[in-house]
Amino acid sequence: xxxxxxxxxxxxxxxxxxxxxxxxxxxxxxxxxxxxxxxxxxxxxxxxxxxxxxxxxxxxxxxxxxxxxxxxxxxxxxxxxxxxxxxxxxxxxxxxxxxxxxxxxxxxxxxxxxxxxxxxxxxxxx
Length: 126
Known about the structure:
- By secondary structure, the protein is an all-alpha fold.
- It has helices at 3-24, 38-49, 66-118, 122-125.
- The mean pLDDT is 86.
């Protein structure tokens, strides 16, 4: 197993553990909504500390339901993942193309050097 494959397997294991451990350990069981986002947690903490708090800003767009909000968040995550995948794919393709061009250039030089040394060049046949 190559070094990159080991690193990828380890990263995959860490991501799986981050997803499964909170569920397996029962984290958040004491809460009404155990896995709410950081915004909701912050709002709860602020209202506990200062009940009369008024936010400075309001959202530009408030989705009509939680399902639509979740769908928009998933769409945003998918678009971000697509952009990252495109970027890394482009970088890998360019690197592979450069390596292929280098290999072909080296093969061409090797072929030229062997044909010059054996007297098979077109200039000698004329």
